[in-house]
């Protein structure tokens, strides 16, 4: 049984009654008839009646005034202001005030209310039984005076709910009969009615079995209470607060009473079978098995084959992780710039994340980036050793990682610089390498230069070549050739000689003329005016 509310309705009626001062200046001498007299089970009986004044009444309140000798409920003729022809309405005079113009009634479902626009515009049904008066009539009615709207609902157990609004009005057809006003609300016994969600039905707990996606094979009898309750209809299951078709629940696995969402996979306890939930059924891959370099386990609540430390793959096939971004680019596993995991030769710890720049031929492993000053680069030795920052924005990859990277192959380096006037420059060296921590990460290799950074005044790339064979310095580790610590004086960390000719890890927020700012001595224009830097390497 399909219903919209907590209890099955026996009767619903909508009434209009004049809420303000009545205009009683008009007189009529017209007659009205009632089809309730011809209905065996109509709400009441009425007969022909001659109005005492010369014009039609405008609503049932005026009918009551003009027909003071006949106060019975029934069908009468009215003609609201501006409406072209008089029409019949049902007037309800059962309560003490009377004069209610009934605009809708539902009693037994004998009239189909699933109608089109035109039907609701003109009205349908039988005034003595079930009907909708019509939106066009209702528009003329409610715009001639101030009306009170009362809604009466009678439940199957005879319980009466009554709600009212003290100013009800709808607009005309041009405005699609918009509900223009309701006014103040009041209600009686409204706690007796609760509306079910649109995806639920009314059902009786004595016969219903509420099933959920989490346990589709079990009746949730404990959700029942006495009487009727909102329930998922047959073939539907509860999924959180919604009722969904069985296939949208996912797939129920008896092992651990597991629910596998649609489109996701399930692996059994021994990792010998893997299945995908498809249209409510698990489609099994009987050939699923872990690689010799993998083990069956549960991580983040997901059971499957996982590759052993130092290997990558889906657990069925496990291979060594790539050594750099070039290998990622070459095996077609990625064509877009982004964050990936690598493990250089000789690196004994777990694979680590790097940012791979796949532009300019692809395969560049990014070592450093500055772009907005969000990361403080005035750090100590251990920070520069392990690396710091955010790979998506600003960072230093780490001197330990940089050593293992640059000693496993022959690498070239590219350095990109953008000034605050958005002029772009780059410098490339066809060889780049640093030594390990025992030699203070000395810049030990730098090849032939090409680029635009200092092509006029120093075509050999002096901005970086000047630092060749010098050790790395930080604010508490002075390894430069100058009498003072360049890292402190220039508020950075670098392979300083006597502090010139570049300081790409300087203070991003320093003033443009400050020695502590990010600078590259040989770029055209102000050399303390750098907004963006990126250092990256790729196999030569």
How does this model look, in words?
This protein is mainly β. It has 8 helices and 38 strands. Strands 27, 28, 29, 30, 31, 32, 33, 34, 35 and 38 form a 10-stranded antiparallel sheet that branches. A hairpin with a 6-residue loop joins strand 28 and strand 29. Residues 1-11 and 20-52 have low confidence and may be disordered.
Brief synopsis:
By secondary structure, this protein is mainly beta. The protein contains eight helices and 38 strands.
Which terms summarize this structure?
disordered N terminus; 9% helix; 540 residues; mainly beta; 10-stranded antiparallel beta sheet
Overall outline? elongated
User: Which consecutive residue ranges, at least 5 long each, have pLDDT under 50?
Assistant: 1-11, 20-52
- The total count of helices amounts to 8
Radius of gyration: 42 Å
Beta-strand content estimate: 25-35%
Which range best describes the helical content: under 10%, 10-25%, 25-40%, 40-55%, 55-70% or over 70%? under 10%
Mean pLDDT: 83
Distance between the termini: 76 Å
The assigned structural class equals mainly beta
> How many strands, which pairing sense, and closed or not: the largest β-sheet?
10 strands, antiparallel
For the secondary structure, the number of strands is 38
Describe the secondary-structure layout.
Blueprint (H helix, E strand, L loop, with lengths): L8 E10 L12 E2 L16 E2 L9 H7 L7 E5 L8 E6 L7 E7 L10 H6 L1 E2 L5 E2 L2 H8 L4 E9 L4 E6 L3 E2 L8 E3 L3 E4 L12 E4 L23 E4 L4 E4 L2 E4 L5 E3 L4 E3 L4 E3 L6 E5 L2 E5 L8 E6 L2 E6 L4 E2 L4 E2 L5 H6 L7 E5 L9 E6 L6 E7 L10 H6 L1 E2 L5 E2 L2 H10 L2 E9 L4 E11 L8 E4 L2 E3 L10 H4 L20 H4 L12 E2 L15 E2 L9 E10 L1
């Amino acid at each position: 049984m399909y219903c919209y509310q907590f209890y099955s309705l026996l009767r619903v009626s909508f009434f209009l009654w004049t809420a303000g001062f009545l205009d009683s200046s008009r007189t009529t001498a017209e007659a009205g008839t009632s089809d309730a007299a011809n209905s065996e089970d109509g709400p009441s009986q009425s007969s022909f009646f001659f109005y005492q004044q010369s014009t039609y009444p405008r609503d049932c309140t005026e009918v009551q005034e003009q027909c003071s000798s006949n106060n019975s409920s029934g069908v009468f003729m009215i003609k609201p202001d501006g409406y072209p022809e008089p029409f019949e309405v049902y007037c309800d005079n059962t309560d003490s005030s009377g004069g209610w113009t009934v605009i809708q009634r539902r009693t037994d479902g004998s009239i189909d209310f699933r109608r089109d626009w035109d039907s609701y515009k003109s009205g349908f049904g039988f005034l003595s039984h079930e009907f909708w008066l019509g939106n066009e009539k209702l528009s003329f009615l409610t715009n001639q005076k101030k009306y009170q709207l009362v809604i009466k609902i009678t439940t199957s157990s005879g319980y009466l709910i009554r709600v009212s609004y003290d100013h009800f009005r709808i607009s005309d057809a041009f405005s699609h009969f918009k509900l223009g006003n309701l006014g103040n609300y009041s209600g009686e016994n409204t706690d007796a009615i609760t509306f079910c969600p649109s995806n639920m039905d009314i059902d009786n707990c004595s016969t219903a079995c509420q099933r959920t996606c989490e346990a589709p094979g079990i009746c949730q009898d404990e959700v029942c209470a006495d009487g009727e309750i909102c329930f998922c209809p047959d073939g539907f299951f509860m999924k959180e607060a919604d009722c969904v078709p069985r296939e949208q629940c996912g797939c129920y696995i008896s092992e651990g009473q597991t629910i596998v969402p649609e489109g996701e996979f399930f692996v059994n306890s021994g990792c010998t079978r893997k299945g995908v939930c498809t249209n409510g059924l698990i489609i099994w891959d009987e050939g699923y098995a872990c690689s010799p370099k993998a083990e069956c386990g549960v991580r983040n609540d997901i059971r499957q084959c996982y590759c052993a430390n130092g290997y990558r793959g889906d657990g069925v096939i496990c291979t060594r992780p790539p050594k750099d971004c070039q290998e990622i680019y070459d095996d077609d596993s990625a064509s877009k710039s982004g964050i990936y995991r690598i493990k250089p030769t000789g690196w004994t710890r777990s694979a680590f994340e790097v940012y791979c720049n796949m532009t300019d031929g692809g395969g560049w492993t990014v070592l450093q980036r500055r772009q907005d000053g969000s990361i403080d680069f005035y750090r100590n030795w251990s920070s520069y050793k392990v690396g710091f920052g955010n790979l998506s924005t600003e960072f230093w990859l780490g001197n330990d990682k940089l050593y293992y990277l640059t000693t496993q192959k022959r690498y070239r380096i590219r350095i990109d610089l953008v000034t605050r006037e958005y002029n772009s420059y780059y410098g490339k060296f066809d060889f780049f390498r640093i030594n390990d921590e025992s030699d203070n990460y000395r810049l030990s290799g730098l090849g032939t230069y090409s680029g635009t950074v200092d092509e006029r005044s120093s075509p050999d790339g002096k901005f970086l070549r000047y630092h060749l064979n010098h050790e790395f310095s930080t604010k508490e580790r002075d390894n430069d050739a100058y009498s003072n610590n360049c890292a402190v004086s220039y508020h950075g960390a670098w392979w300083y000689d006597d502090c010139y000719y570049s300081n790409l890890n300087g203070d991003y927020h320093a003033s443009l003329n400050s020695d502590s700012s990010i600078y590259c001595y040989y770029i055209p224009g102000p050399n303390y005016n750098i907004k963006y830097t990126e250092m990256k390497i790729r196999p030569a």
